[in-house]
Amino acid sequence: MSTTYPKLRLRLVSLFFVVLAVVCVGQLFFLQVVRGERYADQADRQYVRVSDEAFSRGTIYFKEKNDKLVAAATLRSSFVIVANPTKIVDPQALYASTSALMAIDETKFVEAVSKTGDTYEVVATNIDEAMAERVRAANLPGITVYKEKKRYYPGNTLAGHVLGFVGWAEEGGKQVFGGRYGLERYYDDILRRASGSLYINFFAQVFAGLNSLREEENLIEGDVVTTIEPTVQAALERELATMATTWQPERSGAIIMDPMTGKIYAMAARPTFDPNTFNTVDDPTIFTNPLVENVYEMGSIVKPLTMAAALDAGVIKPTTMYTDEGTVQVGIATISNYDGKARGRVNMQEVLNQSLNTGMVFVMKSMGRTVFATYMKNYGLGEKTGIDVPNEIPGLIKNLESPRDVEHATASFGQGIALTPLNVTRALASLGNGGYLVKPYLTDSMQYTVGITDDTTPAPGRRILKAETSKTITAMLVNVVDKALVGGREKMEHYSIAAKTGTAQISKPGGGYYDDRFSHSFFGYFPASNPRFIVMFYMVHPKGAKYASETLTAPFMHTAKFLLNYYQVPPDR
To answer: Among 68, 89, 369, 398, which residue carries the largest CB count within 10 Å?
Structure first.
């Protein structure tokens, strides 16, 4: 008995401390997890002025090659100084006190704080935290410091067309705050946070025994992780900036994509904009993404699609010969080579090497209009790619419905049909990936606020060409680079590159074509034996050069060498 009671007392004391610890931990859990965001929000609102919509919005991330996430669109705190003129007796004296703490325009300040009857006048914005704290600590009469959170794009112009921005716009007869372009708009329902509500952690809800995890309408809130690699995106935008300086095109753009999967590493266009200062842009058409919202006649980069179709249909081989007379009559139209010169008897490889329009008419006629049109439609040229950005449009390929040969003849070398840059890039990727039509995508995953991550990688695409056709056309395009592109001077000793240039006349608004205005394009994939990347550049009306080989060879090769080095891709020859 003498030892039983002390043991019992010890156990009771131990139990008391265990229960006390559980209560303390539970209370801490409740304060920090269940109510943590609420109290943090309340602390902020001691001097926060912000709309619910802007204050709460998910993050968009870039994804580096090592899988590290980098914020592309997030929230940033700044401070505003607000005056209440009804509490200010001496505006001039107040200005003296305020200007001693921060630089401020005297005329505007005095005018603002002298508005009798007004209770709210913003006198300074975008104030940093240190300065805001000095003003608040001075306790100036009629002056209040507010914190506000705004949408912030750390990369400034980096991937501006991909990201878009947020702002106010009229929807259903009322002003609504939300995503307006790019991923901000496409994933607005996921990035937007429920107005007036505070998020409660998924695990907090489970362990606190709440009745329901979340309101049904808020289940899809989360962050977006893009496929954009920021270093690659920056390198691509530098190339476009150099092109703009050198050739002064009206518009230009480029895409870097994995031809096997459709993953977009980089996508850029010029002219561009900074989403942080979108309100300073005079021409709102700059906000649209021309890579998916504009169509262009792409010219000779379409020739490999026509050639591959004929190879796949079995009507030609690379060694098939025809007689090039420099021109060919199709109905009442005369179609010429770019230089009007005849080459005599040449094979299909030379048709690509020398980019002969007459040769492509021969190839189209070898298939016939119906087979040719079927293949071109199978490339997806007349449909949307399904990429996850708003306002994508399909290519314009109505000429492929024509009963006349001439429309099909011009389409065979990329005139008379208009395609988005992404649309044609996807089609060209099928030449190098074994014959599959992939779905381009910009989103790697969704990180939902309930703690679930959703991989958004699309399913493999459908087969549109035989695997053997893919190998054959790839070998032909490697020959183009090794032997024909600027005389073979850009051939890489240890890497095979399959590529083709394109030059197209620009159509006039009233019909017909300009004689002195051209669009330039260049595509290529590499290493050609097992492509990791497909790169496509285009420019509209560059100045000082007629052919794409003159303007786009350097940007393409710079980009190819950068990618091979940056990703340490093993040589394939």
So the answer is: 369
What number does CATH give the domain 52-224? 3.90.1310.10
Question: Do 492 and 455 meet the contact criterion of CB atoms below 8 Å apart?
Answer: no
On whether the CB atoms of residues 313 and 367 are closer than 8 A, the answer is yes
H or E element that contains 310: helix 303-313
By the 8 A CB rule, do 446 and 222 touch?
yes
Q: Where are the beta strands (DSSP E) in 187-237?
A: 222-226
From the list 377, 367, 376, 379, the residue with the least C-alpha distance to 463 is 379
Residues facing residue 71 across a β-bridge: 61
The whole-number pLDDT of residue 128 equals 86
CB crowding 73-100: b at 16 or more within 10 Å, else e? bbbeebbbbbbebeebeebeebbeebee
Q: Determine the pLDDT at residue 7.
A: 63
- Residue 171 DSSP SS3: strand
d(CA 89, CA 42) in angstroms, rounded, equals 31
CA–CA separation, 492 and 513 (whole Å) = 37
Strands 60-63 and 222-226 come out as parallel
Q: Tell me which residues of the chain have a pLDDT lower than 70.
A: 1-14, 16-55, 195-219
For 355-364, the pLDDT digits (tens) are 999 999 999 9
Give me the pLDDT at residue 8, please.
66
Burial of 352 (0-12, 13-18, 19+ CB in 10 A): buried
For the entire predicted model, the pTM comes to 0.85
Query: CB of 348 within 8 A of CB of 309?
Result: no
Q: Which residue has the tokens 């794409």?
A: 548
pLDDT of residue 32: 54
* Spatial separation of the C-alpha atoms in residues 462 and 460, rounded to whole Å: 7
Total count of residues recorded for the chain: 573
Contact 523, 560 (CB under 8 A): no
The residues pairing with 463 across neighbouring beta strands, listed in sequence order, are 436
Is residue 463 within a helix (H) or strand (E), and if so which, with residue range?
strand 462-463
Residue 231 contacts residue 70 (beta carbons within 8 Å)? no
**Which CATH superfamily hosts domain 230-278+291-566?**
DD-peptidase/beta-lactamase superfamily (3.40.710.10)
CA dihedral 73, 79, 85, 86 (to 10 degrees): 100
Structural contact between residues 296 and 288, judged by C-beta atoms closer than 8 angstroms: no
**Using one digit for the tens of pLDDT, what is the confidence trace for 202-248?**
444 444 443 343 344 445 799 999 999 999 999 999 999 999 999 99
C-alpha–C-alpha distance, residues 216 and 51, integer Å: 23
Tokens of 16: 């008391």
From residue 14, give the alpha-carbon distance in Å to each of 3, 19, 26: 17, 9, 18
Domain range annotation of the chain = 4-34, 52-224, 230-278+291-566
